[in-house]
Amino acid sequence: MPILDTPYARLDLIRQPEQPNEPLQAFDAADEYLLAELHPRALPATTRVLILNDSFGALACALAAHVDVTSSGDSHLAHLALQKNLARNGMPAERVRFVPANEVAQGPFDLVLIRVPKTLALLEEQLIRLHGQLAPDAEVIAAAMIKHLPRAAGDLLEQYIGPVQASLAVKKARLLTATPAQRPVPISPYPTRYRLDQPKLELLNHANLFCREGLDIGTRAFLPHLPKALGALRVADLGCGNGVLGIIYALNNPQAELTLVDESYMAVQSARENWQAIHGERPVEIRAGDGLAEQPPASLDLVLCNPPFHQQQVVGDFLAWRMFTQAKAALRQGGELWIVGNRHLGYHLKLKRLYGRVEQVAATPKFVILRAIKG
After folding, report:
1. Which residue from 135, 140, 93 is spatially nearest to 113, judged by alpha carbons?
2. What is the pLDDT of residue 316?
3. Average pLDDT along the chain
4. Which domain holds residue 210?
5. CATH number for the domain including 59?
6. Could you tell me where the DSSP H helices lie in the chain?
7. What is the pLDDT of residue 19?
8. pTM across the whole model
C-alpha cells in the first residue's frame, strides 16, 4: 500500500470503494505538491481551511492535526474514504467537518484548497458559493494533474475569485493560486432544466449532474422499455442521477414502492426535487449511499440501473460490476435487475456469470437493455 509522505504527516490511505489488489493509490502528485507548497508558511493552528473535492481525504488527513479543517465535496464515497482514512491514521472523525456539496460551507475561511473536479460546472458552483465566505487576505489554491487541468478552470477562478498565478509544473502537477478581489455578487446558472417529450416532464439538474443539459442517450434508449403495470413491487433506481428512471417507472406503476440511490449529493438533491415536483407527497426513499450496500438482503423485487463506466477520471467496469453484485444481494429470489449498457462493454456475459439467467429486452445500434433474473 503506497504511503503519502508529506511535511505534515505520513499517511496510510485507501480508496473507496475498496477492491482486492487495488491498482490505484488514494493520492497523486497534485496532493503532494499542494502540501509541500503550504508547509513553509507555518499556518497558525487557528487557520480555517476549506478543502473542496478531496477525493479520498488525503489533504484533510494531512492537515487535520495542524489547522481547522472543513472538507466539502459531492461524493458520498469520498466522505466514506475520509472517515476511514482518519480512523486508519489514528485521528478522530470530528477533526474534520464534512459539508456535502449541495450545502454551503460556512466561513469565513482563511485558505481554500481545491482539487479541480472533472465537471467544471461543479467547480463554478463551488466558486460562486465562496462569495462572502472568504476572510480578509484569504487565498484560494487549486491543484490538478496537468492532463486533467483545462484552461477554463483558471478562467473560472479569475472570474469568481480574482487574479490567478499558475505555478511551474512538478511531477506533471500544477497549482493555480487566486488572490481574492472585489467581484459583483454572482448569480448561479444552476440548477439547469430540460424537458422530455414522452412523457412530458421537466427535470431539474444541479451542477454536478451527468448530462445536465439533456437526457443521456443510454437512458433515452432505456425509457421506452421500462416495465409497466407490475403492481406493488419494491423497486430501486440504482445510480439514480436526477431520478428520471425511478420517476417514470413510478408514473407507470402507481402502486410501486421506490428507492432512489446515488453517491452524488447533488444527484440526490436533484432527484428529490424532481420527485416532489412530479409525484408530490407520494412516499419514496431517496438517499446518498454506496450503491445498495446498506439495502437489506432480499428486500427488493426490481432494480433499474444505467451503470457508470468511470470513477472521477478513471475508466473501467469495476463500479458497474460492484453495482450488479449489490443488486443481486438486495434482490429476492426471482427478483430482476434491468440495465442499459453500451454493446461493446459485454455486460451480458458478466451478468450471466453472476445471475445465471439473462435476457435481452431490446437493443439499438449502440445500446442493449438486459434483464438478469436472480435464481
Report:
1. 140
2. 53
3. 94
4. 192-374
5. 3.40.50.150
6. 29-38, 58-63, 76-88, 120-129, 151-160, 217-222, 244-252, 265-279, 318-330, 347-355
7. 79
8. 0.94
